[in-house]
Amino acid sequence: MLLQAKSALNRFFMNQQASSISKDYLSAQEAVLLLGVRMQTLYAYVSRGWIHSIAQSGRKDRLYARADIEKLKARSLARSGHGAVAASAMHWGEPIIPTTITQITSEGPLYRGQLATQLARSHVSFEEVAELLWNGTLATVSVRWPRYVQTDSLRKFATSIVVPTANDQLMELFSIFTMWLGLSRGYAAGHLDSQDTLAVARELIQTLTGCFGYASQRRTFYQLRKGQSIAEGLLGALEVEETTANLEGLNAALVVLADHELSPSSFAARIAASSGATLHSCLAAAVCTNSGAQIGRLYSEVERFLTRGASSKTLFRRASELQARGLAVPGFGHPLYPRGDPRARLLLDLIRKREGRSKSLDAVERFVADSQDRLGLYPRQELALGLLGIAMGLPKNTSGALFTLARTAGWVAHVREQRLAGTFLRPRAKFVG
Fold first, then answer.
1. What pTM value is reported for the model?
2. Is 161 within 8 Å of 173 (Cβ atoms)?
3. Which of 32, 75, 352, 420 is most enclosed, with most CB atoms within 10 A?
4. How far apart are CA 169 and CA 25, in angstroms?
5. What is d(CA 167, CA 419) in angstroms, rounded to the nearest whole number?
6. Is the pLDDT of residue 177 over 90?
7. What is the average per-residue pLDDT within 164-191?
8. Cα–Cα distances in angstroms (integers) from residue 361 to residues 304, 379, 391, in the given order
9. How confident is the model at residue 93 (pLDDT cuts 50, 70, 90)?
10. Domain extents for the chain?
């Protein structure tokens, strides 16, 4: 009889675990089951800031972030040996690769000791931030990159491209152009010295900027004009009015998104660099990784969520329904910023200062404020960038591509640092049969 009772209890626990696999938020009962602790211990973890909890509209019981719970459980398991330590480090865990590029703090990322949000507020250009990431010093004078003129072969290649049917396919287009540029230079591109590598990086970023022309009404590659900055080139490529507010917003977004430590795409770039791959191959690997549904294409999901809501009440109701199912609301809750993403705050502040705001934009902003005040949900940079795109009138579903362009600057820095480290990144797998 006792054995039957234990068997029934085990089946119950297994069913409970299976039902919570796809959830982003767990109930208190599911959380203590996954952690293997008492309810009082769960509450203690929350009070210490180890697990983020959120309220539910119209209900007293709270929900608990699954990512935080799994991270805490992984750290507990890590005490059992080196293998568990390494496994836990691969999922928002402990740092595993030393770097001098970017440090993540509660105030946002620090680029070589410089706070990214402060650089954006000080109107430091994206080009200057890229050079800071690459060289370790911030220029004292304004930086303008030389224009890399479109060659005949690039012009022919650009006109031969099948125009993407969806703007979020720009990320795939980036990888195609990146590899083509690498092929046009030959394998020697993998053995360039430091200065030549940076020249290649600047040329590539300008080329990717030109790819945004495929998302405009012209649907053709855009050649940057002499003296144009990357932000100016983007507005020209997308056929958006070059106002002070548009330039400030776009440059700020590029600056605060230029790097974020060891993201999956940066890790992919470093793995490729450790194998001796060319710069173009390293960046193509990063672009492809970045195009995934949980990274680059998350922006399109956020945009769809925001634009389908007719009012702030409708958006809040839909957010509450997602939470009731234990699912994350698109664009909210960053594991590294439990009290809110500083990059999102900066971009949202810039949006609030804009003139000629639409009613739909006001509705979304009320929804964001209500979600934070009533549900404890803090916006991520994906939501802020999507809102900035709506405010500027950018073509739909281009936010992910803008993020990818910005992050290219950080990838170049990671490739260079990994090459200097000279280590071969080859983690081991644990065979489980």
1. 0.84
2. yes
3. 32
4. 30
5. 34
6. yes
7. 85
8. 14, 15, 7
9. low
10. 26-96, 100-433
Residue keyed to tokens 């990146």: 178
Which are the contacts of 136, defined by CB distance < 8 A and separation ≥ 6?
100, 112
Cα 30 to Cα 69: distance, rounded to the nearest angstrom: 10
What pLDDT, on a 0 to 100 scale, did the predictor assign at position 84? 56
Q: Which CATH number fits domain 100-433: 1.10.510.10, 1.10.260.40, 1.10.150.130, 1.10.580.10?
A: 1.10.580.10
CA nearest 427: which of 184, 87, 173, 115? 87
C-alpha to C-alpha distance for 62 and 54, rounded to whole angstroms: 6
DSSP E strands: which ranges in 20-141? 25-26, 53-56, 59-65, 102-105, 108-111, 114-115
Neighbour-count burial of 246, counting CB atoms closer than 10 A to its CB (0-12 exposed, 13-18 middle, 19+ buried): buried
Cα 339 to Cα 114, 222, 256, distances in angstroms = 21, 40, 18
- pLDDT for 30-85, tens place per residue? 988 888 889 989 988 988 888 888 888 878 888 988 888 887 877 666 555 555 55
Whether residue 124 contacts residue 255, with contact meaning beta carbons closer than 8 Å, is answered with yes
Q: Where are the alpha helices (DSSP H) in 227-353?
A: 230-238, 244-256, 264-274, 279-290, 298-307, 312-324, 342-352
> Both tokens of residue 232?
């100016």
CA-CA-CA-CA dihedral for 383, 387, 389, 393, to nearest 10: 160
